[in-house]
Design a protein that fits this description.
The complex is a heterodimer. Helices cover 75% and strands 1% of the residues of chain A. Chain A is mostly helical. In chain A, 56% of the residues are buried. Chain B is α+β, with helices and mostly antiparallel strands. Chain B has three domains: 101 residues, no CATH class; 59 residues; 83 residues, Barwin-like endoglucanases (Beta Barrel), CATH 2.40.40. In chain B, the strands form three sheets. A six-stranded antiparallel beta sheet of chain B has the order 1-6-2-3-4-5. Classes of the chains: A mainly alpha, B alpha+beta.
């Protein structure tokens, strides 16, 4: 068995049904520990985030504000997967997959909330104002010295995975989209991407945060500009599409040829897998990546940052849902069931008044934001392992890959990085399980008006 | 020209020298809290100024100074005469110096006087009560130059009030209000203003004791008990009950400053 076969095996495992079940179970456990904060405290979460949007640039004295940290996380989360990936979920699991995606999102909200809370609670703050945080830090300081190897493992997975999900995949998608829609040579796309990503990463978290606070609203604005005309175009089919989403959540006759019994249960498994898979991996809840961004926020209490985690999930849910509904309402899903998701997305956007070019622009902007945030995640992972001296070498390597990405030809590396991306969840979910009690305690203290007591230095 | 500091050349010795030599000129004293001058003619004081005071009252205040740069310029004549040039005045000056020697006021006349609650019942005379009221919130120098009572009279009363602990002389401070952004706190607490621990320590140092935080919004003003917390820079944490009572909402800006309890 060669390394690629091992990788393939691991990849199937980390993105497989069993792993999805673990994600859901951990999410349910954290929901219990936090008193189902994603439901019971949603009002407070919205007041603390959307309601306090005019305070978005006010930090609590540190490098970046809670809003900016959330934007860095959101910039990474809302990537091409929210468009192509969502179309893919419907193509594989049918309209009913959307229901299971929603369920996974609702459970995942508790996970993302817990990640943000722990990231702030256990982060290390240095005298120059810089911060190191994220799952590697809450594993190391939350679980103790004996689990330092697990923290190191997470940091290693992140540092390498960033080259896949956060670099080659994104750069490849941008390169392909711009070449296809605007005839831009991949080398030019690569050069531009490398320059932009290099400039932004070079400025550290402050520059990345300033970029994210601009690019995320642009992403959302562009997304609405892309999707609303499609929804308006099929507004008559929207009620039917919504009804279809619910009616085909458990069985999908067309997909299975209307055969009952074994075929029906097979259909349910397919629907579940497609929907839950999207609901888990689109928003990165459980992977621990967003926690690296949330750790940077200066805030008086970790739970307050947790609310940004919840809101981040809501925004991601809104984007994927609108995307799915526009695709289902268009009726194109029937033609592409089990087919090519990229082609399905292209055909969907062909109906857009601005044409398929809209898809190209959307993908390019989505991918750029994701690349910058993931570059930062990877850099933090590397810095945790090797110290601050690794930052510039890491940035330069990341930039080099951003240039190569659109040219293609690194499929093996992308595949390995994709596996490591999935593997990031393993140490993170272990830590979330072990530290669920800490999250519950912090939530309790916050709502009793008690001050935050950062953990003692280890 | 002769110059120096009263801490090294006490005023009494300086005057004895100038008066003994029957000098004519002006002695200028630059105290940190006010400026003063004393004009001599044939060795006799003929005019004195100390802040707003003139004549014998000014002279009385100057005789209480224990430090401060001075310079004597010979030949300078007074524009006005506020003191009679006679032997009696010299005796009066000696008496003033002796009286000041009995008084133990702080060296720093820039200290601010604050009334303190009495620990036991104390009987005060009408004069003492009036001086107490006059001195509240003023610097020692301002209190001594009150123009209602002579500086010596005032100094003697202040000395007593300070020794009784009814007055306290504290460093002069100017506390500027801070503009803070309201942050919601959850739970059942009330009457608390949560501020950054750095600001808390800063205000505590300035005031030298426990304090209230006074808030002023567009419509309301209130005093709340301060509670320091980490990572609250630029923020003011208020419990929901207080926010409703004060008609404040998250994100609103309020002026906040400390007030001694």
């Amino acid at each position: 068995m060669d390394i690629l076969e091992i990788n393939e095996l691991l990849n199937r495992a980390v993105y497989g049904e069993w792993m999805m079940l673990v994600f859901i179970l951990v999410g349910l456990y954290l929901s219990l520990r936090t008193g189902f904060a994603q439901f019971g405290r949603m009002g407070v979460a919205l007041r603390e985030t959307v309601g306090a949007i005019r305070e978005r640039f006010l930090s609590f004295g540190g490098q970046i504000s809670p809003f900016q940290a959330a934007m860095v996380a959101l910039s990474a989360t809302i990537g091409t997967g929210h468009i192509i990936g969502m179309v893919g979920a419907v193509v594989v699991g049918g309209p009913g997959a959307v229901v299971w995606m929603w369920v996974a999102y609702l459970v995942g909200m508790a996970t993302k909330f817990a990640e943000a809370v722990l990231a702030v609670h256990f982060r290390r703050q240095y005298t120059d104002g810089s911060v190191l945080g994220g799952p590697m830090v809450y594993i190391r300081y939350g679980l103790g010295r004996r689990m330092a190897w697990l923290a190191g493992l997470f940091a290693f997975f992140t540092a390498v995975a960033a080259f896949g999900i956060g670099n080659l995949s994104q750069a490849g998608a941008v390169g392909a989209a711009l070449a296809q829609e605007f005839d831009v040579p991949p080398a030019i796309t690569g050069l531009l991407l490398a320059l932009l990503v290099g400039f932004l990463l070079g400025g550290g978290i402050r520059r990345i945060a300033r970029f994210a606070q601009v690019v995320v609203p642009i992403k959302l604005g562009l997304f609405l500009l892309a999707v609303l005309p499609l929804l308006l175009l099929h507004i008559g089919q929207l009620p039917g599409a919504l009804a279809l989403v619910f009616s085909s959540a458990f069985s999908f006759q067309a997909a299975t040829g209307g055969v009952a019994g074994a075929a029906l249960s097979l259909g349910l498994a397919e629907i579940l897998k497609a929907g839950v898979g999207r609901g888990i991996f689109a928003n990165e809840a459980g992977l621990g990546s967003a926690a690296i961004a949330h750790a940077q926020a200066q805030v008086d209490h970790p739970v307050r940052q947790g609310f940004w985690g919840l809101t981040e999930m809501l925004v991601s849910l809104l984007v994927t849902s609108l995307m799915a509904l526009s695709f289902i309402a268009s009726g194109l899903w029937q033609r592409f069931l089990g087919g090519d998701r990229v082609e399905a997305a292209r055909l969907l956007f062909a109906e857009h008044p601005l044409g398929v070019a809209m898809l190209g622009v959307l993908l390019a902007v989505f991918a750029l934001g994701t690349m910058v945030s993931w570059g930062f995640y990877g850099e933090e992972g590397a810095a945790y392992l090797f110290g601050d001296g690794i930052r510039w070498p890491y940035r330069l390597t990341f930039v080099a890959f951003a240039f190569v990405g659109p040219l293609g030809g690194l499929a093996a590396l992308t595949s390995v990085a994709d596996t490591l991306n999935g593997m990031m969840a393993i140490p993170n979910l272990i830590a979330l399980l072990a530290l669920g009690g800490v999250v519950g305690r912090l939530v309790g203290e916050f709502f009793r008006g008690l001050p935050w007591q950062p953990p003692e230095e280890d | 020209m002769l110059s120096g500091n009263l801490a090294e050349f006490p005023l009494l010795q300086l005057l004895e020298t100038l008066m003994g030599a029957a000098r004519e000129g002006a002695l200028f004293i630059q105290h940190p809290q006010f400026s003063g001058c004393l004009y001599l003619q044939g060795g006799y004081p003929v005019h004195a100024e100390a802040g707003p005071l003139r004549g014998l009252e000014a002279l009385e205040l100057l005789t209480g100074l224990r430090s401060g740069p001075f310079r004597y310029e010979a030949g300078v004549q007074a524009q006005e005469q506020s003191i009679e040039p006679r032997l009696e005045t010299q005796r009066l000056i000696l008496h003033q110096f002796e009286a000041w020697r009995e008084i133990e006021l702080p060296e720093n006349w820039g200290l601010v006087l604050q009334t303190q609650p009495a620990s036991s019942q104390t009987q005060l005379s009408p004069l003492e009560l009036r001086v107490l009221a006059l001195a509240e919130g003023k610097s020692l120098a301002q209190a001594l130059m009150n123009q209602q009572f002579t500086p010596l009279q005032t100094a003697q009363v202040l000395d007593k009030l300070l020794r009784l602990g009814l007055l306290e002389a504290r460093k002069s401070w100017e506390i500027q209000s801070e503009t803070l952004v309201v942050l919601s706190l959850y739970g059942g607490g009330q009457g608390v203003a949560v501020i950054d621990e750095g600001l808390f320590v800063h205000w505590q140092r300035l005031l030298g004791g426990p304090f209230w935080v006074r808030l002023r919004s567009k419509t309301q003003e209130a005093a709340l008990r301060p509670e320091p917390r980490i990572q609250m820079q630029g923020r003011l944490g208020l419990f929901e009950r207080d926010m409703r009572r004060l008609r404040l909402s998250r994100g609103m800006r309020v002026e906040a400053w400390p007030e001694l309890i």
